[in-house]
Each structure stands twice: as structure tokens, then as C-alpha cells.
Amino acid sequence: MSEGTKRTTTKSKSPFKRLVGNIDCLIVALMGFYIIHLFARYSGIGVSPDSIMYASTAQNIHDHFSLITFNNTPLVFFPVFYPFFLSICIFLSGGMDPVSAGPVINGILFGITIFLTGWITTKFKAPSIIYKWLILIAVVLSPALLEIYMYLWSETLFILVILIFIIAYHNYLQSHSIKALIIVALVAAICCITRYAGITVVATGGLLILIDGRLTWKRKVSHLLVFGAIGISLLGANLILNAYATGLSTGTREPSITPFSENLYYFGTVILDWAGLPASFDPIAVAFAIIVIVGLSTLLIVRTAQHHLNSYENIIICFTLVYGLFILIIASISRFERMNSRLLSPMFIPLLLSFTCWIPDLIKYLKFRKKWLLATPFVVAMLAFEVTIAKVDYQKYDDFKDYGIPGYTDDDWNKSSFVTFLKTHQHIFKPGYPIYTDADEAVYMFAHMHSTLLPHKFFAGDVAKVYAQKRFYLIDFKKLESSELIGLKDIQAHKTLTKLCDFEDGAIYICEKK
Question: Where does it live in the cell (predicted)?
Fold first, then answer.
């Protein structure tokens, strides 16, 4: 059979046959969809302050085609695509708000992510059905991913778009055509406006083009310019829009208070936790983090030297390395929440594939009759890992099934006396006076009122504006006390406080000049 005939045969394979060939991926994807519904069955999808920011902006896009958040300010702290995606979901669902539709939205996103992960493993240099099944089980049971897909967070979409980028870039490698390059650049551009960390996808594509030995330097330069220009185009437009609306391209950002060494430690603890290892292993976190970074670097260098660039494995390894280094560096420059699983979650699937993809390859090419003996230790180790994370999942489910996913939809909030009072006593707030609070998103979600978040102590000018107010209301959620925001004691030093109501978990005050 000629090469041309082979190509024709491959191309003629129908989508139905491709689906049947990956029916195992579809089954596990449906399991993932069901698991998200199982966790959200008691009180709905998990809702955090970020979730309310996304959902309220999505509602405003749908209703008014406006990028305004719940507190009547432009969306700048986050990029625009995830709220835009949620607004499409509102339209397709006939007007259902994103929080109510969250279990379906996240279930579908998780299911597609699982399916594409399994499909990608079938395109490895040495595809293995057992390897594919082990990876699928690890992904669907991963506490790191379940934590993400239980909440209305942009990472749910970002992780999926990263997988689409990996597929699109591999397609580009087959022909190096301008058309394929534009497609992968557009996917990278969407990554950038899903999360600002999507710039790592552009960096990954740029690095892969640079080390591609099949391109002449002239083509490398032209492809880099095309890819880079398109890849950052939507992000550039988003930042310009932000700067025009507020004067700040990504919102107010504080300098980091954690040095690189400390971030490296927390990076290591997250990866150790992903591996199912207990906290007693944390003392080796820095060494483990270094091993991960050096290991990824070594894999990329070796595969580049062996001219194995035209493979899914190489794209995945390159992205994992770039994303890990980016997060470590940016967290040491700009202030984030402490390095945690959510921040690193986009690299979970790529990291899992990076450090396991060589095993089927090695077993295939070793000249040894009883190859199952070589595969057994890996299979046993993976099964032991999956049993461990399944126990973690079950414990989480046992905690959440009668309480709700932690956040604004759990029983701490739904059954709160203070929240009930806030819902039913909005008349106590006289018009004309500002309302300050340590949780403006909670005030919006439960009372549908607009309030202003108390300023961070770091921004002295904003703090002075609060104290300059002659009279204002303070809604104090006691359980959310933050050391970063000005608090009740700070305000008492400048104002006379009159208590309007007091509950175990919150209170309302009138604050006036002394």
C-alpha cells in the first residue's frame, strides 16, 4: 500500500468510528460529569468571591453587554473570556444564572477535559491501552482537579483550553502551514484572556518554534512574529480596555511578600500532596520541587537532542516546565494567595503525563519477551496512587454531602442567622450613606445590595478616604476577619460606632465622626 493510500485511509475514518475507538474515554468522561453532580447535589456548585465576580459580570454581559461586576466597577482583576463564556451559557440555558447552572457547566467541562486527556494518550509515540486507562482513572479521581471543578472558577475552562492548544500545536507540527499556525495562535490568544497566566501558552509556543530543527531561521522568525502577534493580541486588547476604563491594566496589585525560596517550598508541598504523600514529607518539599523542575528540563533537552519534537509528549513537557517556572517567578514578584493547588492546577494533567509518558515508550522498545514484568511495577504504583486519592475523594464527599461545598453555598452561610437578618432587614440602611464591608460579594449574593470592600492597609490613600467619610454603615462578617484589610478595631480608633444588630457571625454598625 502506498503512502498516499495510507493517508487517505486514515482521513476517511469517520467521526463515529473515532468516537467508538475512544468509548472508554467517553465512559470515564460521563463518570466525571456524574461525580461533579454528586458533590454539588446538596447545595449546588461551590461559590467563592471570585465566583461571584465571574457570575455577576456574565449576567451583565448577557443583560447589558457590559463588563461591569456586581459592585458596579469594570472587570479588570480577571480577563474577560470566562465571564463571556458564562454569558453564553446563560443564553443557551434560557436565562439560568451561572451559579444555578454551575453543576452542569462544570460537569461538561470536566467531562470534555477527561475525554481529551485520554484521546491525547492514544496519540503518544507508544500508545498503550493500560496506560490510557490508568491515566483516565487518575484524572477523574484527582482531588486537585475535583477541587477546581467543584467551584465556579475560570480554571475549569482554562485547563480545557490548554489541552486544545496542545492538540492544535501538534496539528501545526504536521505541516508547519500558516493556516495551522494561525489556528494555534488563536487558541493561545483565548488562553490569555481566560486567565492572565495564559501568557505561558504563548511562551510555550514560542519556545517550541525556536527549538524546532525542521524550520529554517527565516521561517522561525516569521512564524514567531505571526504566532506572537496573534497570541498576545486579545490580551493586549483586554489590557488596553482595562487601562481605559480604570487606569489600571490588571487592577491593583501588591508586591510579593514571599521570596522565591519560600514559593519553591510551597510549590513542592503541592506536588507532594498531588502525589498522595502525607504532610510528613513536607521537609523535602524544596528538594522535590527542584527535582521536578530539573526533571522536566532534562526531559525537554533530551527529547530535543533526539529530534522528538514532533510529538504530543514534547509539547506537554514544554508547557509544564514553562508554566511551573512562570508561577514560581511571578509569585515572587507580585502578591498572590499563598502557592496552592488551585494556582498550580493547570499543570496537573501535563505534569502527570510528562512524568509517565516515557514508561510505555521504554517498555515498547526494550528487547525483552516478558514485557508485562517491566510494566507491573508501574501499574501497581499507579493503582496504589489511585486507591489513595479515591480515599481522599470519599472523605471529601462524606464531609460535603450533608453540609455543602465550602463557600457561599454551604450551610455556614445558608443557615446563618446574620445572613437571614441581612436578607430581610435592608430597610435599616438609609439612602445617601455608603456601606462598607469585609465581604462585598457576600452582601451582593445574599442581600442583592451594593457595598464597598474595606480597603487593604497597604493602600494608604484608600484607607484615608474611608476615614474621611462623615457617616457610613459597616457590615462586619466576623468569620471573615482579614489581617490585610482595615478591620473593626482600626475603624474604632477613628470613628464612633453604633451597633444596629449583633449576631454570632456578623454585625452591622453606623460609623460616625468622634
Answer: Cell membrane
How big is the chain by its Cα radius of gyration, in Å? 25
Query: Residue 358 in contact with residue 299, Cβ under 8 Å?
Result: yes
Query: SS3 of 471, please?
Result: strand
What's the rounded Cα separation, in Å, for the pair 474 and 293? 47
In order along its 514 residues, the chain shows pLDDT tens digits of: 333 333 334 454 666 566 667 899 999 999 999 999 999 999 999 999 999 999 999 999 999 999 999 988 999 999 999 999 999 999 999 999 999 999 999 999 999 999 999 999 999 988 889 999 999 999 999 999 999 999 999 999 999 999 999 999 999 999 999 999 999 999 999 999 999 999 999 999 999 999 998 999 999 999 999 999 999 999 999 999 999 988 888 877 778 788 999 999 999 999 999 999 999 999 999 999 999 999 999 999 988 888 777 899 999 999 999 999 999 999 999 887 789 999 999 999 999 999 999 888 878 777 666 666 777 889 999 999 999 999 999 999 999 999 999 999 999 999 999 999 999 999 999 998 999 999 999 999 999 899 999 999 888 899 999 999 999 999 999 888 788 899 899 999 999 999 999 999 999 999 998 7
Q: Is residue 395 classed as helix, strand or coil in its secondary structure?
A: helix
Rounded CA separation 205/201 (Å): 6
Residue 376 identity (one-letter amino acid): T
508: which strand partners?
475, 501
Cα–Cα dist 298/33, whole Å: 36
Closest CA to 71 of 463, 480, 449: 449
Coil, strand or helix at 65:
coil
Contact (Cβ atoms closer than 8 angstroms) between residue 45 and residue 405: yes
**Calpha distance 403→162 (Å, rounded):** 33
Contact 162, 387 (CB under 8 A): no
Give, in degrees to the nearest 5, the angle at Cα 326 between 325 and 328.
65
Q: Residue 182 burial by CB count (10 A; 0-12/13-18/19+): exposed, middle or buried?
A: middle
At 253, list the grid cell: 496589585
The most distant pair of C-alpha atoms in the chain lies apart, rounded to whole Å, by: 92
Instruction: Collapse the DSSP code of 68 into the 3-class scheme (helix H, G, I; strand E, B; otherwise coil) and give the result.
Output: strand
Residue 509 main-chain phi, psi, to 5 deg: -130, 155
Q: What is the pTM of this model?
A: 0.92
53 with 75: CB under 8 angstroms? yes
Amino acid occupying residue 414? N
List of residues 6+ apart from 40 with CB closer than 8 A = 46, 102, 103, 106, 150, 405
Contact 346, 323 (CB under 8 A): yes
**Contact criterion met (CB below 8 Å) for 161 and 109:** no
